[in-house]
Amino acid sequence: MCLIIRKTQAEGERPRRKVGCLGGCLIFLAVYFLCSAILGWIMGDMFSSGNVELKDQTVYRLQLKGTLVEQAQEENPFADMLGSVPYSSYATQESVGLDEILSNIRLAKNDDKILGIWLDGGALACEPAGAKAIRDALIDFKTSGKWIIASAQDFGQTSYYIASVADRICLDPIGSVGWKGLAAQKMYYTRLFEKIGVEMQILKVGTFKSAVEPFFRTSMSDADKLQTKMYLDGIWSEYKAAVSASRHISVEQLDALADRYMGLQKAEENLKAGLVDTIVYQQDMDSLLRVYTGTKDYNTLTTSKLAKVKRPESKAKDKVAVLYLEGEITDDSGDGIVGKDVVKTLKKIRKDEDVKAVVLRVNSPGGSANASEQIWHATQNIRANGVPVVVSMGGLAASGGYYISCGADYIYAEPTTITGSIGIFGTIPNVAKLRNKVGLDIDGIGTNKHSEMEGNIIYKGFNAEERQLWQTMIENGYDLFTRRCAEGRHKDQDYIKSIGEGRVWLGDKGVEIGIVDELGNIDDAIAKAVELAGLENYKLAYFPEKKDPWEELLKSFDDTTDEEKLLIKVREFASKPRIMALMPEVTIQ
């Protein structure tokens, strides 16, 4: 039974609620007709399918801002109109596709109409592997003899790592370079759960499987410190070596500058240290661009616009399917890698007789063990048809992300890719203390010994027999995971277990221990797929299909409050035990 308590309207009081609803309706109608009136004016520009014309004397303005994702989505036409509309999160989310950036850099290198590249801004949120892919492409671009200049009011550390390849780096007079070294931090919930009366019951295999540590520890374990320091040191070494080579500053000097935290130093100090070449206001970059282009009539095209410049189309019948798999792995729903949807796409690819090779671009910390197994199986069905599958790892291909990769014919990773984390765990909340605090009693009856187990382990907690049953299931899952890895990597299962235990590795170390075949990027993976398939003429087919902006807009109008969303997540979390192959959530800064 639900009791609804409602304030009684006082006699003579004006019915404000009804007027408010009527007023709201009138406002809605006014906005509706206003939007309808201007819709015809903006429709052509918003959804124009025409190509952008590439003019002479063009500069590619690569804006280092927003969040880097693997695959670009359709350009958001609602950003300017709806950026402040209540309940609409879609319009405010800005992302830039790594695929578009790399394609644009290749076009800029080979087309004489493009004079050079301007790296504009320094606040791109991206993983080190994505940053390295952009940086390597820019280095290749410079072999054309064309120039690159970079400018920002402030350079973030990873954006500076990218921008360090530029022929000239310009910094605003009140700006700085956030050069400070790398750190990783986690949040621990153990004491919070103790206060509210929740115990997180942990089941896991692997000394290094630290994703569950925030639920029963208050600090990093020695094992987690060891693996975290390993990949931080590896990424930092890459940053220093690359910047040192481009800026002619020794690695020792770069460490000394990091200890000064150059982001808190004046622009002149960054200039004196050799991190930048010129101090100039961002608003005055036009003057410098005129010098580099040799004209005041140069054109600029941003990433999304340059991506619309028509490329030559292959007439080949044979296809190489490139499937982007990015985000956390879930079973049925979510914004990342949804198992049922990926399996459906892989079946579609398998049934296409023109697809002669498949490249999986994986950037995932893992997730559902069940979904990972289903995706693994779908890839093996493709290989069973004689179609080679090659994996290109992005910033992360760990735990479930490695699970869905391990069965490929060949695996590429970037040196700074975080991979491995071969392990499995389950987390089941025990709310017995919280239940007692709030006076909630649970009782029931079942037909067999364990009929009520799933409810009891949440509301009363494990007994010894129940814990052992669940732990055995987790160990069986780990055995299956390591068996998949052993089969795919042609290794002994005991060896996989010895390098498993949930431990994470960087890509270069992954090659050394045999869980990765070679260091390389997505272009290398495509070339290998072509080689394995014995293709001469082919075209690329990209999956999944890009999301329709109208559908995403309608989905984004959600009147669910943040508090309600949190409660929904808690309810989903508690409703069923989670068996996960997931890397720990870490904030690298």
Descriptive report:
The protein has 589 residues and is of the alpha/beta class. The chain is built from 22 helices and 23 strands. The chain has 2 domains: 169 residues, 2-enoyl-CoA Hydratase, Chain A, domain 1, CATH 3.90.226.10; 252 residues, 2-enoyl-CoA Hydratase, Chain A, domain 1. It is 43% helix and 22% strand. β15, α14 and β16 form a beta-alpha-beta unit. α3 packs parallel to α4 and α4 packs parallel to α5. The longest helix is centred in the first third of the chain and has 31 residues. It is globular, with a radius of gyration of 27 Å. The relative contact order is 0.13. The N terminus is likely disordered.
Give me the secondary-structure topology.
Elements: H1 16-46, E1 58-69, H2 79-82, E2 95-97, H3 98-110, E3 114-125, H4 128-142, E4 147-155, H5 157-163, E5 168-177, E6 184-185, H6 190-196, E7 199-205, H7 222-247, H8 251-260, H9 267-272, E8 278-279, H10 285-293, E9 299-302, H11 303-306, E10 319-326, E11 329-330, E12 337-338, H12 339-351, E13 355-364, E14 366-368, H13 369-384, E15 389-398, H14 400-403, E16 410-413, E17 418-420, E18 424-430, H15 432-438, H16 453-459, H17 464-489, H18 493-499, E19 504-506, H19 507-513, E20 518-519, H20 522-533, E21 539-543, H21 549-556, H22 562-575, E22 578-582, E23 587-588
Parallel strand pairs: 1-2, 1-3, 1-9, 3-4, 4-5, 5-8, 10-13, 10-21, 11-12, 13-15, 15-16, 15-17, 16-20
Antiparallel strand pairs: 6-23, 7-18, 14-22, 17-19, 18-22
Helix pairs in contact: 3-4, 4-5, 12-13, 17-18
